[in-house]
């Protein structure tokens, strides 16, 4: 080893000695600390000596190395964990700090902002028995975050979908919430749906926010569902008037990931949220919203700011009016007003919804927004539970502004509209 490389190794050894001293001085005896101080001073003097030769320098380094091995505990000699744990902890603190105060990643679960942003969607298979190859699954997962789902019949018989009564006297497809794992280890809540094949229950689990009810009906486009009593006589089911055989796929589809974007958490500390901003807010501070005061569950929603304190809003012929004039700060307002493409226009809240309508409930009904409050609206007005149902968003609930869609790699990738 050249003297230059030897001195570099000596400096690294001194750094290790300083770390042992600072981490273990409270458990080392005064004699050991004095011995360490003497060995460090000796090596430091040699490293500063321009005329030092290799042999005495190597002997000095060996003495310090031997001492550190005796007193270093888990700090010395270096292992993977001792060498990298500190770096990992610092990195984790930096990441948590950035997420908490600057930029927070957020994945859109539903399609209330479609087509500006996309939530989770189902990609149906025309041939349910045509399972995708492993390479195809991997490619679709990497590019679209798509996860494959299939429900295979274990026996033969008629296909039926169990139904459940709703609070307003209607019926919905039955499901129950169950505990599950996200990414294989993170706890999450899943929705478990049941399909009857010859009266035998077959279950499938999907993310709780996924529109499984629509996916079930789309999976059988050529059938005429009929509401019938189940064979037990204790409930109802949709009879699809179609059958399955053992080994056949009753359901086969991919769930594509909703748009993943970064939320700017810092800008709103310096400027007020503006009408047209796509903003993320917490639900716990909003009574009546799912996840609000009634449930004590904190969730994050993304909507567009339809109005701010002091403004008066109204819906008229698909357009959003502010103080009697069409709102035009962003393209989504104009596209909805023109009912352009997949933008269906702003609509009045449905009267038969399980969430009672509160704002802009009909023609001529205006919303006068109080100071410090915001109206949150989905760009997909007909498919959005928003301020029209649960009222205003308080300023303290606002998290930040959506700024960049980073995944998946679709036409929406880039700056958030």
Number of helices: 8
Shape: extended
Strand content: 25-35%
Kindly report the oligomeric state of this protein: single chain
Can you walk me through this structure?
Belongs to the peptidase S26 family. It catalyses: Cleavage of hydrophobic, N-terminal signal or leader sequences from secreted and periplasmic proteins. With 417 residues, the chain is an alpha+beta fold. It contains eight helices and 22 strands. The strands form four sheets. Strands 1, 12, 13, 14, 19, 20, 21 and 22 form an eight-stranded antiparallel beta sheet that branches. The chain is extended. It starts with a helix and ends with a strand.
Descriptive terms for the model:
417 residues, single chain, eight-stranded antiparallel sheet, alpha+beta, 8 helices
Structure summarized in a few sentences:
It is found in: Membrane. The chain crosses the membrane at residues 87-108. By secondary structure, the chain is α+β, with helices and mostly antiparallel strands.
Give the helices and strands, then pairings.
Blueprint: H1 3-24, H2 30-48, H3 54-71, H4 80-101, E1 103-107, E2 121-124, H5 134-144, E3 147-152, E4 157-165, E5 171-173, E6 175-182, E7 186-197, E8 200-207, H6 212-218, E9 226-229, E10 236-244, E11 249-256, E12 260-264, E13 278-282, E14 300-308, E15 312-316, E16 319-322, E17 325-326, H7 331-338, E18 367-368, E19 373-377, H8 387-390, E20 393-394, E21 398-407, E22 414-415
Antiparallel strand pairs: 1-12, 2-11, 3-11, 4-5, 4-7, 4-10, 6-7, 7-8, 9-10, 12-21, 13-14, 13-21, 14-19, 15-16, 15-18, 16-17, 19-20, 21-22
Helix pairs in contact: 1-2, 1-3, 2-3
Protein name: Signal peptidase I
EC number: 3.4.21.89
Catalytic activity: Cleavage of hydrophobic, N-terminal signal or leader sequences from secreted and periplasmic proteins
């Amino acid at each position: 080893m050249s003297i230059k490389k030897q001195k570099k190794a000596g400096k690294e050894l001194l750094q290790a000695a300083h770390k042992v001293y600072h981490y273990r001085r409270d458990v080392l005896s005064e004699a050991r600390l004095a011995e360490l101080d003497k060995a460090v001073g000796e090596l430091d003097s040699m490293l500063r000596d321009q005329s030092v030769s290799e042999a005495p320098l190597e002997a000095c380094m060996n003495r310090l190395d031997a001492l550190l091995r005796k007193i270093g505990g888990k700090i010395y000699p270096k292992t993977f964990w001792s060498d990298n744990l500190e770096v990992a902890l610092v990195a984790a603190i930096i990441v948590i700090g950035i997420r908490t105060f600057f930029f927070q990643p957020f994945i859109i679960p539903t399609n209330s902002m479609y087509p500006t942003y996309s939530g989770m969607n189902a990609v149906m298979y025309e041939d349910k028995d045509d399972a995708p190859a492993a390479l195809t699954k991997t490619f679709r997962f990497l590019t679209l975050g798509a996860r494959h789902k299939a429900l295979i019949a274990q026996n033969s018989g008629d296909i039926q979908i169990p139904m459940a009564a709703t609070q307003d006297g209607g019926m919905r497809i039955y499901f129950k919430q169950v505990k599950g794992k996200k990414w294989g280890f993170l706890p999450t809540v899943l929705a478990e749906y049941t399909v009857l094949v010859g009266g035998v229950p077959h279950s499938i689990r999907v993310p709780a926010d996924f529109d499984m009810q629509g996916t079930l009906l789309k999976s059988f486009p050529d059938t005429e569902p009929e509401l019938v009593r189940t064979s037990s006589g204790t409930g109802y089911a949709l009879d699809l008037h179609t059958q399955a055989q053992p080994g056949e796929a009753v359901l086969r589809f991919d769930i594509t990931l909703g748009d993943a974007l970064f939320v700017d958490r810092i800008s709103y500390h310096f400027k007020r949220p503006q009408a047209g901003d796509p903003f993320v807010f917490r639900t716990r501070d909003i009574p009546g919203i799912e996840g609000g005061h009634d449930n004590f569950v904190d969730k994050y929603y993304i909507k567009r700011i339809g109005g701010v304190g002091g403004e008066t809003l109204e819906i008229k012929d698909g357009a959003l009016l502010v103080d009697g004039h069409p709102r035009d700060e962003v393209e989504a307002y104009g596209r909805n007003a023109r009912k352009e493409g997949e933008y269906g226009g702003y609509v009045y809240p449905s009267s038969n919804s399980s969430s009672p309508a509160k704002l802009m409930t009909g023609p001529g009904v205006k919303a006068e927004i109080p100071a410090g409050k915001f109206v949150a609206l989905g760009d997909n007005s007909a498919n959005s539970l928003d301020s029209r149902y649960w009222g205003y968003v308080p300023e303290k609930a606002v998290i930040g502004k959506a700024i960049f869609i980073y995944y998946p790699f679709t036409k929406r990738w880039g700056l958030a509209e």
